[in-house]
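request received
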Amino acid sequence: MDRSGAVLDHPGLWRARHLVRARTRSGHPTGFPPLDAILHDGGWPPAGLTEFLYDTPGVGELRLLLPALARLSHADARWIAWIAPPCTPYAPALASAGVDLDRVLLIHPRNRREALWATEQALRSGASSAVLAWLDESGLGPTGVRRLQLAAKQGRAWANLFRPRKASARPSMAELRILLDDEPSERCDRVGVTVLKRRGGWATTRLVLELGRGPFPNEFESLGDRIASWRRSLGRSFDSAPVLIDRRGLRGIPPAPPAPTAPKVSTAQPGD
Amino acid sequence: MLWFAVHFPRLGLEIFERRHPDETASPAVLVEDGRVRLTNAPARQAGIVPGSSLATAHGVAARLRHFERDLPAELERLHRLAETAYRYTSHVSACAPDGLVLDMHGSRALFDNLFDGIGAVAEDLASLFADIGHAARIAFAHTPAGALTLARAGQRPAVEGPVHAAALEALHGVPLACTEIAPRNVERLANMGIVRIGQLLALPRDELGARFGPALQDCLSRLTGETSDPRTPIVPRESFASAVHLIEAISNKQTLLFPMRRLTAELAAWLGARQLGAMRLVWGFHPLHGAPCHVETRFASPRADARGILEIARLRLEQADLPEETMSIELAAAETAPRASAAGGLFATEAGTGLGTGAATGESHPAAPMELVDAIEARLGDAALRCLALADDHRPERAWTSRRPGRKPGGVSRMPTEVSAAPGRRPLWFFDPPRPVRIHRFRLLAGPERIESGWWDDAVARDYYVALGEDGAQCWLFHTRGSARPRRRGVDSRSDDGWFLHGYFS
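response:
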């Protein structure tokens, strides 16, 4: 019995019960509590490969990552490497989402061999905290994905691979596979998330996440409300305040209220 | 006082062996006036002794290579080696033909702490020279002449106790042939039965002077430290350039790495002595005939570790077209920058977040961020890497810039207020140049936001809208007003009705 106990304590031996015990909070918080709750580490895997499968660019794949990227860019002095992005990541948008631009490194390889090499290098070197890669599917067999997963483990990097949806039929070594699809909504701020593969659990049913921070700031949605609240803040003198609204709308932030002695000006009725 | 001396017993032969690194296993001798002067290890094993004639040597070893002594090249090499030793002390002087002396007195306390005693310093010096392909004998004494004599004799005084006493004791047993006493006098003394320094020192000095001349007297008193022995220190070069001339051409990139490793070790020593890091290096590969090929390696941050520099050069060479056969390799430091102090923290910090890595970085240690940049740039080219920065302009295509990593941004780091005030109002994917689109394929969701600016160079007057594409993607469209069409970078303005796609909200 003693001997079997020693065998069971061997560090190379893995038993399913470890899974329950090892459920830690070591992941990068996603910024979406419902998603954190179903991920094994309580967030994106801090060292391992995550696959995003989607067909529509712009479905919300970046906004899903942004809260974690913003946090990571301040918490970790290593690079956030973007390898072969399909378009240019727009610096003002990243900055306004809180990403530290000094950590962002764009890598534009000339062909798919270089892209694969650069991805592996960025992961393995340990000089990147996160890697976002858009690789050519034809050069990315199961061996390629496996190499990337191992490199991510070795370099303790959060690797993100963006792939077309049809890749979901192929087996993959990735730690986490997530299917993204469009969730129609009034303000286009939702995305449907289906976890196809995760550590410590089965695939999940479709989950709809509120991405928030869409391209609809308050002034877009109801200018009338804003003006009303502004008028309320002015108190009694709102009758006399001129509201100058550009006919096209959105530049019409009201100017500073005039002095009480100003002559009365007839105002246009705001609100629509 | 504490003087270290370095003696290179096979310097004359090693400058030739450097030239063909592959063949150190075959016997080779250095010849002067038809007699063998120096032998390498295989030649010694074959039984060739210094002093034998060249014909005898060839008779002993069939595949013997021999080189005529090249004294100017030896002196040149000795000065390079003196510069390599400059990292230990600022007072290094070369003693022709094959010795260096280093005044270590000022750094003694430092070495006691850093190296665990002067014995360890001697080991460190020997391994430094072994790295660049020279066997070296190291000794120390309280006088430069004493240290040099001991180094030639291959003896090292005891590290314990005062250097003065230990050195004198060690000197007593050294043969007179190792000193700077004229060979004629050494022979005369030997005929008298005096072959060791100890025997000579026991004799009355004045009478020796009367018999053998003041030179012998002077030599002895410099050996024991009774008279001062000033040495002229070398002045290291301001720039680094070194070359290896090969005797047989190399046509394999992998084989080239061997002589290149020696050059990088030399460069690292030079950089270390000057507290610099390399920013730009130029490697020159010269064929026997025709134009040389120059390969440039750049670094995003100052680098001084020989292994990292060689690794970047290797990645770079994979891409480069070299001459078919390389006869000589040059390395020049074209641009250097002061290196930040490599001092580590008092307590070990978490691996992976540290920015400074020393020369002793192991394979498993995570690379510093700039090392990744160097490695990728070396393989993918300079244009492959970009960093983002903000620019102070309202026009979306000019609100950002990109630059090479490691360079200080030229633009501003402040965000335009309209962007920072409303997160999410700008798309994450950006098209540059904008793509002309048909508006009936989109459903406008919000807008417009007017951007009208740039009358001074490239005027834009646009109304921006958020729109939903047919495939469900959220797009950032704009409609140009009036005659202001995007003219930059060849956008075709005929095929559209003034609507352009400028980005995706992802």
